TrEMBL record:
Lineage: Bacteria, Bacillati, Actinomycetota, Actinomycetes, Micrococcales
InterPro entries per record: T2SS_GspF_dom (IPR018076), T2SS_GspF_sf (IPR042094)
Name of a matching Pfam family: T2SSF
Subcellular location: Cell membrane
Native organism: Pseudolysinimonas yzui
Keywords per UniProt: Cell membrane, Membrane, Transmembrane, Transmembrane helix
Location, primary (coarse class): membrane
Listed name of the protein: Type II secretion system protein GspF domain-containing protein
Length: 315
């Protein structure tokens, strides 16, 4: 088992060397004295290695839609480029693989745990991005009524609609300021305002803001007091948000129970691997045990999805 583990580590080292020396774009060698201005602090070797690895990942993934897209990172509020995020995920997968190998060291579970823990890294990263995206969208929805009041106040002060949106981009909190700045910048380079606002509503998954964008579009075509319209829409959205918070509070116990029931089998299995590793060895020593393990995992996934669907109240 030790030989197999050492072999797996050597394969991992060979893969890193391949990425670093083969896939990375070639560089022209220039003397360090010519690259660095007098008095400027030189970059460390670790930083140069990291940048070279990121460049290698970028050269491989350029023009392809990968597991982590730029839009996914932006929606989650992650200020990183996809190659850098992939490198961080790969490093996390390597650490998790070592942890899994140590947990099952000396048993038949060593290699399966190392592989399973390594595969957890991209899945965990994807889940984290989804959670951050959901939290960002929820925060945008909570800020929407105040945002509409701010727009209405700017319109009453004599601002045009684009100027009012620009004021929101400067004065509001994130993520509202970030999304409105994006919409305003798109209008400045020639995109229609209605399209930019509807795109923002689609990105944030906000039906309320989609109605707001449609109200602004209709008002631009027919005329009228847009400030009063937005004030009324803001009041309606405020009432909807209050009801949404009440529904979320009432369903909090069910969501917590679902999370506990999902995590409990995983936690118990890991505890048994640490306390008594041979207790679960029967699942990998025979084909019946492997089939039972696969069926148990599938049933756990189906049950988890069902519980999450039950406690998720759409309003």
């Amino acid at each position: 088992m030790t030989v197999v583990l050492v072999g797996a580590l050597l394969v991992l080292a060979a893969l890193l060397a391949f990425v670093f020396f083969v896939l990375a774009p070639p560089r022209v060698r220039v003397a360090a004295s010519r690259r660095t201005a007098p008095g400027v602090e030189q970059v460390s070797q670790l930083t140069r290695v990291t940048e070279r690895t990121v460049n290698a990942i970028e050269s491989v993934s350029r023009g392809r839609r990968g597991f982590f897209d730029k839009e996914d990172l932006v929606l989650a509020g992650v200020v990183m480029e996809p190659p850098s995020f992939i490198l961080v995920t790969f490093a996390g997968g390597t650490v998790l693989a070592l942890v899994g190998a140590l947990l099952g060291f000396g048993t038949l579970w060593s290699i399966p745990l190392a592989i399973g823990f390594a595969l957890l890294a991209p899945l965990v990263a994807k889940v984290v991005l989804a959670i951050r995206t959901g939290a960002r969208r929820a925060k945008f929805a909570d800020q929407l009524d105040d945002t509409l009041q701010l727009i209405a106040g700017n319109l009453r002060a004599g601002y045009g609609i684009v100027q009012a949106l620009d004021a929101v981009a400067r004065d509001a909190e994130a993520p509202t300021s970030e999304e409105f700045a994006r919409a305003v910048n798109q209008t400045r380079i020639g995109r229609d305002l209605n399209d930019a606002l509807e795109d923002t509503a689609a990105r944030m998954g906000s039906d309320d803001f989609m109605w707001t964008a449609q109200a602004i579009s209709i008002n631009r075509q027919t005329g009228g007091n847009l400030a009063e319209v937005l004030a009324q829409v803001g009041a309606t959205i405020r009432e909807r948000n209050q009801i949404r918070r009440q529904v979320r509070a009432l369903s909090a116990e069910g969501r917590l129970s679902a999370i506990v029931l999902i995590c409990l089998p995983i936690a118990v299995s890991l505890a048994l691997l640490v306390v008594q590793p041979g207790y679960l060895a029967v699942f990998v020593e025979s084909i019946i045990g492997v089939l039972a393990l696969i069926i148990a995992v599938l049933l756990g996934v189906v049950g988890s999805l069902w519980m999450l669907a039950v406690v998720r109240v759409k309003f």
